[in-house]
Recover the amino acids of this structure.
């Protein structure tokens, strides 16, 4: 499209991200695209960019300072994943939830949709307290937390499912469940990481479903939106890229569509 990208990566370090945004604002680029981030951390700097006359666009960030946000339909993701979970457990039972990143908009939307769905299934209960997934060492931490929960609830049927807003905690949870021989418990997550989709494809794995996003397509759409904006076109507030819900029945088709392995 003829643009020159200035790409920076904070490595999920908030302090580094703020410093990078500060530098970018000072450079006054033709547009700024922020991908993910905790809203309370990044929003003041997105406002500074907007106030400096820099068009701000985002990916997976619901900021009022963004002209356009390109994202998966996280409302649809949350609803569809929750309905899959409820269906798989027969509409009743205890579920374990990882909810460590509610400050990240997509995670909050997916969690809220889970809650919205299960309130119509009164026999489905979220065990309290909810678990907090972490970065880094996400897989190892999820493994340890789920192992502890399984020891607390040792009886078969006492836990029906484990839900997380992304699928790296799901990976650790799935490994812990398999290691404990509790494969009657199903795990659910979001993103479509190849290793998790391979677990969903394994009929003996506890991985029940993974809502696969299309990150490459999201990136392409976001860049096209920048080009359209700079050409004088009006953008919608949100641009949605569909996700693909992979379950035990259709996962091979989803893997093929995503071009994974």
């Amino acid at each position: 499209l003829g643009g020159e990208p200035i790409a920076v990566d904070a490595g999920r370090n908030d302090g580094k991200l703020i410093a990078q945004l500060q530098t970018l604002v000072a450079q006054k680029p033709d547009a700024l695209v922020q991908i993910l981030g905790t809203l309370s951390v990044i929003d003041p700097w997105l406002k500074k960019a907007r106030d400096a006359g820099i068009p701000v666009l985002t990916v997976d960030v619901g900021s009022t300072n963004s002209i356009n946000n390109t994202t998966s339909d996280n409302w649809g993701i949350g609803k569809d994943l929750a309905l899959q979970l409820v269906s798989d457990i027969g509409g009743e039972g205890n579920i374990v939830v990882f909810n460590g990143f509610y400050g990240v908009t997509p995670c909050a939307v997916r969690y809220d949709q889970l809650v919205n769905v299960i309130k119509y299934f009164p026999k489905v209960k979220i065990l309290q307290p909810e678990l907090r997934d972490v970065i880094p060492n996400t897989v190892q931490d999820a493994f340890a937390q789920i192992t502890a929960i399984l020891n607390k609830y040792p009886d078969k049927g006492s836990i029906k499912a484990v839900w997380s807003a992304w699928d790296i905690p799901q990976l650790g949870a799935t490994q812990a469940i398999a290691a404990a021989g509790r494969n009657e418990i199903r795990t659910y997550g979001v993103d479509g990481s190849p290793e998790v989709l391979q677990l969903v494809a394994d009929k003996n794995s506890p991985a029940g479903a993974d809502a696969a996003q299309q990150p490459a397509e999201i990136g392409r759409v976001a860049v096209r939106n920048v080009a359209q904006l700079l050409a004088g076109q009006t953008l919608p507030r949100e641009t949605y890229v569909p996700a693909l819900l992979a379950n035990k029945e259709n996962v091979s088709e989803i893997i093929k569509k995503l071009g994974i392995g």
